Amino acid sequence: MARNVIGSGNAVEKINNLMKLFEIAPVNRAVLDAALSSDFKDFEDAVVYKSAAYKEMQGIVTRDFNDFKSSKINVFSPEELLLMLESER
């Protein structure tokens, strides 16, 4: 989607900048097994959550708050993340 809005080159640059700021949680066999046996209705959300938990991440960024209501990990909207990043500058 970012490609459509800001162009392919800009999208790649922005993604590279984000990867410098944040650690990327792995998706491995342990994460997938935990996701399969979780109470999440949506498998992709379960993978995101279990991956973040596996790596003891401080937060998850998503637009889908409903599926993370019982999260023990902080959940932020993209807008909230941007506000936090701007306030740290």
Protein model, in words:
It is a single chain. This protein has helices spanning 2-6, 8-21, 29-36, 43-54, 78-88; strands spanning 59-61, 74-76. It has 89 residues and is mainly alpha-helical. The chain is globular, with a radius of gyration of 14 Å. The chain is built from five helices and two strands, in the order H-H-H-H-E-E-H. The chain has one domain. Strands 1-2 form a two-stranded parallel sheet. Helices cover 56% and strands 7% of the residues.
Total number of distinct structural domains: 1
Figure out the total of helices.
5
Shape: globular
Largest sheet: 2 strands, parallel
The main sheet orders its strands as 1-2
Structural class: mainly alpha
Number of extended strands: 2
SSE arrangement, N to C: HHHHEEH
Residue fraction in strands:
5-15%
- Low-confidence sequence ranges: none
Portion of residues within helices: 55-70%
Output the radius of gyration.
14 Å
- Terminal residue distance: 27 Å
Question: How much is the average pLDDT?
Answer: 89
Keywords:
mainly alpha, two-stranded parallel sheet, 2 strands, 56% helix, globular
